[in-house]
């Protein structure tokens, strides 16, 4: 079943619900649409599965009902430069569940959509489990991401002022694993970048240590063992050390009730550790164990 759902800003998002009709529901806001042809080849070059969304849905739908949509893609098409706050995102996700007649559900998000899952978990009692990939749930890099998103927005705004063409990050000149954050220039619409600046700014007073006792559901956090990004001057000269933070706090997280996993591999960086081939062998058995046994 697919349905167009109107979100809090009036934009419409296509949402699907499929899989085992008698199974528990898994919300996947990371379900990007499949791409083909040269665009797919470009994604493969960067280690990105061009059918990421489809493969996640197919991989889980034999055991679970899968509530899927591409929230990031939707927000790039329909940005909320002033209103992309955890509260509004959570309202969107709960509204989607309501519109699809879903009561309780589990949530899997990666990177900033993992952060969103934590925000959702402290705002509702409808979550049955939570999986956060590529963003640590304890001592998360909020200040570092505030610096990165501020610089990203400033660059995008400068490009608009200078009448520069608007496009995505330019990546063609670099080989996979050799992304140069010192010289990359942002060429995105300012509204697209400002919404993430807005989101992180709203989290500057958020303390993820203080909310841990509010979490009683099964929860899993994971990252690739090479998930560290060192940003150059263009992005605030900060390091976003996802794996370092996860390893530093692994013992504390386990004591707090989190399951912690590290995806091993010399190339297991932030991008590689979000692909279905790496993630499904981890999260599917975990979900079956926590929800079905």
Descriptive report:
By secondary structure, this protein is α/β, with parallel strands linked by helices. It has one domain: Rossmann fold. Helices cover about 40% and strands about 20% of the residues. The protein has helices at about 35-45, 50-60, 70-75, 85-100, 110-120, 140-160, 190-200, 240-250, 250-255, 275-290; strands spanning about 1-5, 10-20, 25-30, 65-70, 105-110, 125-135, 220-225, 230, 240, 260-265. The strands form two sheets. Strands 1-2-4-3-5-6-7-10 form an eight-stranded mixed beta sheet, sandwiched between helices. It has a two-stranded antiparallel ribbon with strand order 8-9. Helix 4 crosses helix 5 (about 110-120) and helix 6 runs antiparallel to helix 7 (about 190-200). The radius of gyration is 18 Å and the shape is globular.
Relevant terms:
alpha/beta; two-stranded antiparallel sheet
Number of strands: 10
| Top-tier CATH class | Alpha Beta
Number of domains: 1
Cα gyration radius (Å) = 18 Å
Q: What structural class do you assign from the helix and strand content?
A: alpha/beta
**Amino- and carboxy-terminal Cα gap:** 27 Å
CATH superfamily: Alpha/Beta hydrolase fold, catalytic domain
Short description:
This is Alpha/beta fold hydrolase. This protein has one domain (2-140, 205-228, 242-292): Rossmann fold (3-Layer(aba) Sandwich). The chain is 38% helix and 18% strand.
Write the layout of secondary structure elements.
Elements: E1 2-6, E2 12-19, E3 25-28, H1 37-45, H2 52-60, E4 65-68, H3 71-77, H4 86-99, E5 105-110, H5 112-121, E6 127-133, H6 142-161, H7 190-201, E7 219-224, E8 228-230, E9 239-241, H8 242-248, H9 250-255, E10 258-263, H10 276-292
Parallel strand pairs: 3-4, 3-5, 5-6, 6-7, 7-10
Antiparallel strand pairs: 1-2, 2-4, 8-9
Keywords: Hydrolase
InterPro entries: AB_hydrolase_fold
Protein name: Alpha/beta fold hydrolase
């Amino acid at each position: 079943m697919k349905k167009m759902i109107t979100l809090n800003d009036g934009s419409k998002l296509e949402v699907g619900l499929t899989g085992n009709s008698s199974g528990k529901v898994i919300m996947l806001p990371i379900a990007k649409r499949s791409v083909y042809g040269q665009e797919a080849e470009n994604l493969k070059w960067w280690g990105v599965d061009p059918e990421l969304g489809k493969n996640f849905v197919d991989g889980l739908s034999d055991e679970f009902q899968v509530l899927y949509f591409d929230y990031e893609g939707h927000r790039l098409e329909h940005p909320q430069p002033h209103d992309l706050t955890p509260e509004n995102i959570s309202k969107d996700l709960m509204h989607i569940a309501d519109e699809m007649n879903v009561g309780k559900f589990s949530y899997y998000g990666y990177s900033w959509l993992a952060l969103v899952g934590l925000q959702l978990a402290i705002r509702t009692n409808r979550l049955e489990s939570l999986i956060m990939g590529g963003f640590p749930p304890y001592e998360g890099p909020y200040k570092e991401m505030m610096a990165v998103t501020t610089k990203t927005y400033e660059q995008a705004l400068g490009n608009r002022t200078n009448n520069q063409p608007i496009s995505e990050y330019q990546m063609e000149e670099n080989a996979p694993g050799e992304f140069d954050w010192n010289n990359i220039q942002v060429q995105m619409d300012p509204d697209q970048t400002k919404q993430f600046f807005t989101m992180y700014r709203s989290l500057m007073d958020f303390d993820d240590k203080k909310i841990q006792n509010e979490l009683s559901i099964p929860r899993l956090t994971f990252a690739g063992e090479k998930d560290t990004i060192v940003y150059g001057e263009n992005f605030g000269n900060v390091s976003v050390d996802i794996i370092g933070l996860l390893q530093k706090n692994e013992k504390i997280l386990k004591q707090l009730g989190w399951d912690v996993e590290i995806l091993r591999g010399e190339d297991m960086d932030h991008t590689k550790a979000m692909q279905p081939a790496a993630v499904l062998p981890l999260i599917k058995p975990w979900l079956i164990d926590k929800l079905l046994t």
